[in-house]
């Protein structure tokens, strides 16, 4: 006997089976609000974004003055300011013409801030981008139909997750132009969801201006020694090289690590939009090519970080839509599962990026003790008083801060460069090529230490000036 011939169970189908089907479907679909008006939760999000900017900038500035940054922050300052100082577009004293490696065009307008304020100006820009990322993440969730309170909290959880903290912390380097990418990508995502063409095009151009390496890809591979020099005669040859080694790439440890990062970094919401993994895996090509374990380094990780933000926001919105249609018991189970997933993901993320500990503990992560920093300030204060801005100067690894707005050169890149007038040395520098004492210096630099006199010396720090 077929019961449905007598309408047995017909009501059950309507009351239970269909709502359940719709509930599960909501996890894999997105809903966009037609209109989005400002309310008190948007003002709460804006206020929290401003507080985030202040907090991040304060921590960044503390790290800067605690001698916690080196290298790339100061390269960025010089490249950003070069067009305002008559040195051409995107030139620095480390790599020379940056355009031969990267097209960091977004640095050009940032020169207007870096010129008067130096490195702290770029750190402030980074802090603003963090606040902007939080605010626009909240707006995206609101646009996807999430309630104000839930949107504010969810965006906050994403912002303070270890991967996000480590990304914006950018330990030891402080700043890369790529760190601004997630905020701009979120703005672009917001405008695309609203189908606003002109703002989308403008924001897309800003995203593209951050970094575009395609024209230089094969030259970069030659320079890095990945393949024999000149063997990749064109971008097409590079594509053939990757395609012919496809199995090796997709089976590499870098791709496995990236998949783990995507799962724990998105709090498992990537599983609701797993097709994004197909597109996202392309971000692992460069780390695989150069065979370095630097997948989480900001210039490599920025595209993955932007993808994580967008996927997590979309996934959370889907969950927020599906849960209200569940029964009370199911909602409690979902809440318990969510807490467990967030806790486990946070633990797994922290294992991937241990330096994030120092940010949570509000520590600068400086290599120097308080007493050593005081010694360094005392020694190099004389250089700040007597040195002229255009006088060439070299410094040990973590001492660049004292010359961030001066004519700073890199000791290991002095070929065809002027001999420095000033030398800011650390005799116990952890990086041997930049280790400087009163009587020893990297012989490959071409500097003769006997041509310099000691101006001041305290502990491990020494200030030297060229004789005559």
Strand order of the largest sheet: 4-3-5-7-6
Largest sheet: 5 strands, mixed
Structural class estimated from helices and strands: mainly alpha
Strand content: 5-15%
Termini separation: 110 Å
Please indicate the count of domains: 2
Judging from the principal axes of the Cα atoms, what is the shape? elongated
Low-confidence stretches: 1-22
Number of strands: 7
What is the mean predicted local confidence, pLDDT?
Answer: 88
Regarding quaternary structure, what we see is single chain
List the helices and strands in order.
HHHEEHHHHHHHHHHHHHHHHEEEEE
Number of helices: 19
- Rg of Cα set: 26 Å
Which descriptors would you attach to this protein?
two-stranded antiparallel sheet; 2 domains; 468 residues; 7 strands; elongated; disordered N terminus; 5-stranded mixed sheet; mainly alpha
Descriptive notes:
The protein is mainly α. It has two domains: 40-212 and 245-360, no CATH class; 370-466. The chain has helices at residues 10-26, 40-65, 72-81, 107-117, 119-143, 148-159, 162-169, 181-193, 197-210, 217-224, 235-244, 246-250, 253-265, 276-280, 285-290, 298-322, 328-352, 356-360, 370-386, and strands spanning 91-92, 96-97, 393-395, 408-409, 422-426, 452-458, 461-466. The chain has a five-stranded mixed sheet with strand order 4-3-5-7-6, with helices on one face. The chain has a two-stranded antiparallel sheet with strand order 1-2. α3 crosses α4 (107-117), α5 (119-143) runs parallel beside α8 and α8 runs antiparallel to α9 (197-210). It is elongated.
């Amino acid at each position: 006997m077929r019961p449905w011939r007598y309408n047995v169970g017909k009501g059950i189908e309507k009351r239970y089976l269909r709502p359940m089907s719709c509930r599960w479907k909501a996890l894999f679909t997105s809903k966009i609000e037609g209109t989005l008006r400002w309310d008190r939760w948007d003002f709460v999000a804006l206020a929290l974004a401003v507080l985030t900017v202040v907090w991040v900038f304060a921590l960044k500035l503390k790290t800067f003055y605690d001698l916690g940054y080196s290298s790339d922050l100061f390269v960025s300052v010089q490249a950003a300011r070069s067009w305002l100082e008559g040195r051409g577009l995107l030139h620095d004293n480390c790599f020379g013409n940056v355009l031969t490696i990267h097209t960091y065009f977004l640095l050009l307008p940032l020169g207007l801030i870096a010129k008067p304020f130096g490195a702290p100006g770029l750190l402030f820009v980074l802090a603003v981008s963090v606040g902007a990322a939080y605010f626009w993440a909240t707006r995206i969730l609101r646009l996807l139909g999430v309630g104000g309170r839930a949107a504010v909290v969810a965006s906050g959880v994403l912002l303070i997750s270890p991967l996000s903290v480590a990304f914006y912390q950018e330990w030891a380097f402080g700043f890369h132009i790529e760190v601004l990418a997630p905020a701009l990508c979120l703005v672009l995502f917001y405008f695309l969801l609203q189908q606003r063409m002109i703002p989308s095009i403008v924001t897309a151009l800003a995203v593209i201006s951050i970094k575009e390496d395609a024209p230089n890809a094969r030259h970069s591979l030659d320079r890095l020694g990945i393949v024999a020099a000149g063997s990749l005669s064109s971008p097409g040859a590079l594509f053939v090289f990757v395609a012919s080694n496809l199995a090796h790439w997709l089976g590499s440890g870098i791709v496995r690590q990236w998949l783990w990062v995507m799962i724990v970094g998105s709090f498992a919401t990537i599983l609701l939009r797993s097709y994004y993994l197909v597109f996202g895996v392309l971000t692992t090509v460069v780390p695989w090519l150069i065979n370095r374990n630097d997948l989480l380094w900001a210039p490599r990780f920025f595209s993955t970080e932007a993808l994580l933000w967008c996927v997590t926001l979309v996934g959370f919105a889907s969950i927020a839509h599906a849960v209200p249609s569940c029964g009370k018991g199911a909602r409690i189970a979902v809440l318990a599962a969510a807490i467990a997933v967030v806790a486990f993901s946070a633990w797994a993320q922290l294992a991937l990026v241990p330096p994030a500990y120092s940010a949570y503990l509000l520590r600068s992560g400086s290599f120097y003790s308080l007493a050593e920093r005081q010694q360094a300030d005392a020694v190099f204060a004389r250089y700040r008083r007597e040195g002229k801005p255009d006088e060439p100067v070299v410094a040990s690894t973590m001492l660049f801060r004292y010359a961030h707005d001066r004519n700073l050169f890199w000791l290991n890149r002095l070929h065809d460069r002027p001999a420095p007038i000033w030398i800011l040395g650390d005799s116990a520098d952890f990086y041997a090529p930049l280790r400087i004492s009163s009587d020893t210096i990297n012989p490959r630099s071409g500097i003769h230490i006997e041509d310099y006199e000691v101006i001041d010396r305290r502990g491990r720090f020494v200030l030297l000036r060229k004789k005559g």
